[in-house]
Write a structure and sequence with these properties.
By secondary structure, the chain is α+β, with helices and mostly antiparallel strands. Helix content is 16%, strand content 24%. Strands 1, 2, 3, 4, 9, 10, 11 and 12 form an 8-stranded antiparallel sheet that branches. It has a 4-stranded antiparallel sheet with strand order 7-6-5-8, with no helix packed on it.
Length: 228
């Protein structure tokens, strides 16, 4: 009869149990790549350049048209070439004329007007000035319906001495004012430098239709900048 050895399966007391090592799998976020998604500026092309050129041309044309409209219907600058309006206006002064004030307003005694030179201004005869100019600037002395004349160095309007609060050379000179009644829509004009002004005493009364506008401000020189 066979005998079998019984194996001792009891674990010794000092034996240690080692559990199998385990590794925990950790999920990491996928790597990210920062990309600048700003679209590149569009490359200039011929069409955009042409559009820009057209826009600038339109701006320039509009500016020129506005300037011409203002000069034609509203304001205009003038240069003073002579001393007939001294001391108020001196040679080299630049003034601005308001055209609307004549077109839609009234003209009063004492107003300074710029107007088209009458034909006799170019004449060298006794009633001419011998000046080849297109425009003149003078002051209104008498208005339609008034009778104007002078005695000595005093100007009379309808028999009363004219009040002249503006600066002027109060000497009539060798050309007195002959008694006359100012016609409708006409004005009697004189320069503030009365003895050295070729004015209505020479070439007659000024028709309103020849008036360009009222001078209201002197803009040059800057040292004499001011209202008129």
């Amino acid at each position: 009869m066979r005998s079998y050895r019984k194996h001792n399966t009891t674990r010794p007391a000092d034996a240690t149990f080692s559990a199998p090592s385990t590794v925990k799998r950790v999920s990491l976020p996928p790597p990210t790549l920062e990309v600048d998604e700003t679209p590149p500026p569009p490359a200039p092309n011929r069409r955009s350049r042409q559009r820009s050129l057209v826009e600038w041309l339109i701006v320039i044309v509009v500016a020129v048209l506005v300037s011409l409209l203002i000069r034609t219907y509203v304001f205009q600058t003038f240069f003073i070439p002579s001393g007939s309006m001294e001391p108020t206006l001196q040679i080299g002064d630049r003034i601005i004329v308001n055209k609307l004030s004549v077109e839609f307003g009234t003209i009063h005694t004492g107003d300074i007007l710029v107007f088209k030179a009458p034909p006799l201004v170019k004449s060298t005869g006794p009633n001419g000035c011998g000046d080849d100019v297109a425009d003149l600037v003078k002051r209104v002395i008498a208005t339609p319906g008034e009778t104007v004349y002078s005695k000595g160095n005093t100007i009379y309007i309808d028999g009363h001495p004219l009040n002249q609060p503006w600066t002027h050379v109060a000497v009539i000179g060798i050309r007195p004012i002959k008694r006359q009644k100012v016609a409708a829509n006409h004005y009697f004009m004189m320069g503030d430098n009365e003895p050295n002004s070729c004015d209505s005493r020479y070439w007659g009364q000024l028709p309103r239709s020849d008036v360009i506008g009222k001078a209201f401000v002197r803009i040059w020189p800057l040292s004499r900048l001011g209202w008129l």
